[in-house]
Amino acid sequence: MAWKTAPAAGRSWSAWGLGLVLMGLLGLLACSACGLAAWLWQTAAPAAPTPTVFPYPGASPTPSATPTPTATPTAEAVPFRAVVQIVALDADGQPLWTGSGTLVDADGLILTNAHIVLPGPGETQPADLLVLMTQQEDRPPTPRFYAQVLQADPDLDLAVLRIVRDLDGNPVDPASLGLPTISLGDADALRLGDELVILGYPGIGGNTITLTKGEVAGFTGEEPYGPRAFIKTTATLAGGNSGGAALDTHGRLVAVPTLLGAGSKVDEVVDCRVLVDTNHDGVVDDADACVPIGGFINALRPVNLAEPLLAAARRGEVAIPTPQPTPTAARSALDDIWRHPGPVLAREPFNAPVEGWSTTNDPDMQVTFTEGTMRALLRPTDAWYSFTWGLDVRDVVVTVRARVTRSAGDGEFGLVCRYRDLNNTYGASVLEDGSFYIWKLVDGEFEELHPFAPLPDEAHFDPRDWTEIGLICFGPHLALWVNGAPVVLVSDGALSQGDAGLVVGTFEGANFEVAFDDLVIRRARR
Q: Is the pLDDT of residue 30 over 70?
């Protein structure tokens, strides 16, 4: 395969046809998800969103000789230092996903969710669980320890961890830790309208501890856990809150935020609207994540259901089931990521020429910017060009609008992710004839991960009309969406992270032109 490369600053484009390799392209290095300060959260995005620190909403306390619990705890009364952030790491020490947890024993016992410490369908088994301690309410948490799983119940979505090592890998003496803790309360004593304070690390608004207030809005039954299997709350919670602390008015732990569990499908219980500038680009539009209004995006597991797990963990017993992955569960997880993607890493509306993507002097590829779009004209047959941004990320959601402006009969266009260099990338392509395929290049070897197949009728594909193409790269999974319709899910673990961008190609046709608009690259988060 022959590749062509134009000089670029940060962003880049490249091309290949059949022949020998002409030149290479290096991506920028960074990391994803969350971090040991810099490496856990920062990426090489040209313009990273500015984190917003949520101020603590409680009032300052009034000194009193006899403290009395109030419905709105003061800042000192809120035991935020006992809430930790948990980062699942792979064998290379890279973040896989994050969640929250609560210290319930001074010797390092942590109550959290099972889905934070166990891999989901097709996901990598965490090699380590990093525990970040909350030191101050206006500062990111500090990496301090590693923990191991003692108890995990996927049906309850609850798990118990114990801190076992410091950052240098040395064993810790549990008796000497003396960590801050939160006392357990009685979830059975809760009544409708009781106030709740929820603490966790949702990842929205910056990597600091976040407090959310709400009320007990109801209860949901589930066999075999009885009529209070879930506590419904008016508090609106984001995914990173999972595993955190739901406190009563006395500051006692009464429930654990968990996955969607209001007793029904999320689409039936959440009214989700775009109301807030969640990607911090200064505009509230369809590129922002929707905000649940009047429904339940998360439910709470009563802490009473965790008591058997805690008792077993305190006895030193270990019980960790191995979940059986299913394609249906994997698709469900990716559907949720598609509906609620993470923050924007890069965005290009193509209102002006993109630095490094102008190729008007190239005899094979001509790029022009007109009427708020980028038009890529590929002249030869049997050639592919890619345009990449300059990121180095693991899990992304990439979307773009595209339409064919000059037909070649068999032209293709689509998206790439985990682009490492000219010979290592994943791609998803849609063809003029209404077919698609998923492919990869690894060490220069081309392979179809999904063969050519017709797009589903639900995609309503017409090459002459604007088509929204979406590609998720998450864990070992790649999923293609076209016009909002799920098309295919494939799995492959060859490439772990890299750049993302666009691809244009031809087979036997020539002079193929595609117009692109509204390219957005977001972090895909669990």
A: no
